[in-house]
Amino acid sequence: AEMGRTLVELFYDVVSPYSWLGFEVLCRYQHIWNIDLRLRPAFLGGIMQATGNKPPAMLPKRGEYMLKDIKRMAKYYQVPVKISEGDFQRIFGTSTLGAMRFITAMDMTQPGYLEPLSREFWIRFWSQREDISQPENILAVARQAGLSSELTQKLLEMISSPAVKNRLRETTEEALKYGAFGMPAVVAHFNGEPHLFFGSDRLELLGSVIGE
Prior knowledge:
Family: Belongs to the GST superfamily. Kappa family.
CATH architecture: 3-Layer(aba) Sandwich
Strand content: 5-15%
Domain DSBA-like thioredoxin: 8-209
Active site: 16
Keywords: Transferase
GO molecular function: glutathione peroxidase activity; glutathione transferase activity
């Protein structure tokens, strides 16, 4: 982090709608608060497996609540997340491993593009309700985010490389080391120690802890 700026790491996976909400709020506040926002693409499946966590919708009452909650938050934060009951099956049936490896490859190549690229994945999956698991869909997202076809091709080739696979695994392990059990996991490095905040509804508290 730059002098005097609080480093805030956002561990996220584009399969998670709450991560999209947290991402948009932090992207807005990175210009208002004295923070250095670092986007950390990780794999939610790995976090769930390592901690024994289950998707919220596995508990029917919680699934019911989540439908209302996401609608309210989408309206409040002005983020075009659309959710319906059918989405739970859609999430269980979609692997974001390829998408998160693609985003990781971007992080290793041109991290400046992480924000628009990640946003386009969320828009495609959570606003347009399109698939993001197939290479042709990833291509469409990359085009939408303004990537050149050369860069897109390079990133697609990187997806299957050990370097990218290891980087995504390491980032996921780093989130676990901070105590993450789901996403978004936001870690603020303040007064020489990491402070973990889970979810998109703890950002006021994060602000308070870092004196914003």
